């Protein structure tokens, strides 16, 4: 939109609120001044502010600062809510591009049986010592697509499967976390915030016969993560 304004295609911007216009006070001021230089006004409906008014920019700076604080407070509340869910052992998993599982109407992980057979095959061949490249070549030869629907199986894609504890019915929560509430940037959690391990949280694809086998699989997952670092 800013580019369209700079090219002279827009002469008035109407937006619902300051929080919808920019992520923080500095960005808000920067864009407003760029637009004012082009004689383009911005009208904020919720706050009833027009940037071409004499007092518009002063009010806008104050309101933008308040909007940023509100956004930060909301982000913190969301974090606390997630933390509480994790402490209660409530599993929340993004199932997009997650081969072997989908979600039911209540948000619980359920098995997609056709995909589960692929997971079992990969897991079996991995534990038998077959190379990642070899597993990938055979999957491609058999015309099996990845979770993203692609024909190419990359070694790093295959390696993630035996590293994923969810296939044995468990869930490691908070593997990643948000470091900046403005940019929503997420990074890998390497001990900066707590993690929670929940056993028997959902249906199992890689079924272990007895605790010894299950702990063996958990060790494979653990050492695979260490090798990745």
Automatic annotation (TrEMBL):
GO molecular function, one term: DNA strand exchange activity
Pfam family, one: Resolvase
SMART domains recorded: Resolvase (SM00857)
Segments forming domain Resolvase/invertase-type recombinase catalytic: 1-89
Residue ranges constituting the Recombinase domain according to the UniProt record: 98-229
Name of this chain's protein: Site-specific DNA recombinase
SUPFAM superfamilies: Resolvase-like
């Amino acid at each position: 939109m800013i580019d369209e304004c700079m090219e002279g295609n827009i002469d008035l911007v109407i937006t619902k609120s300051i929080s919808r216009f920019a992520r923080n006070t500095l960005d808000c001021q920067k864009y407003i001044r760029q637009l004012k230089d082009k004689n383009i006004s911005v009208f904020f409906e919720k706050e009833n502010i027009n940037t071409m008014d004499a007092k518009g920019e002063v009010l806008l700076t104050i309101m933008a600062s308040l909007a940023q604080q509100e956004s930060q407070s909301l982000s913190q509340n969301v974090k606390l809510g997630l933390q509480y869910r994790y402490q209660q052992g409530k599993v929340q998993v993004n199932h997009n591009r997650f081969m072997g599982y989908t979600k039911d109407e209540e948000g619980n992980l359920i098995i997609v049986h056709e995909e589960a057979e692929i997971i079992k095959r990969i897991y079996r061949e991995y534990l038998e010592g077959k190379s990642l490249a070899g597993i990938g070549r055979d999957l491609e030869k058999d015309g099996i697509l990845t979770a993203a629907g692609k024909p190419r199986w990359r070694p790093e894609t295959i390696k993630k499967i035996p590293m994923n504890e969810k296939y044995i019915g468990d869930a490691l929560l908070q593997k990643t976390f948000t470091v900046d509430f403005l940019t929503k940037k997420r990074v890998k959690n390497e001990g900066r915030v707590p993690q929670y391990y929940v056993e028997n949280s959902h249906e199992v694809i890689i079924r272990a016969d007895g605790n010894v086998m299950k702990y063996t699989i958990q060790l494979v997952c653990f050492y695979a993560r260490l090798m990745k670092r």
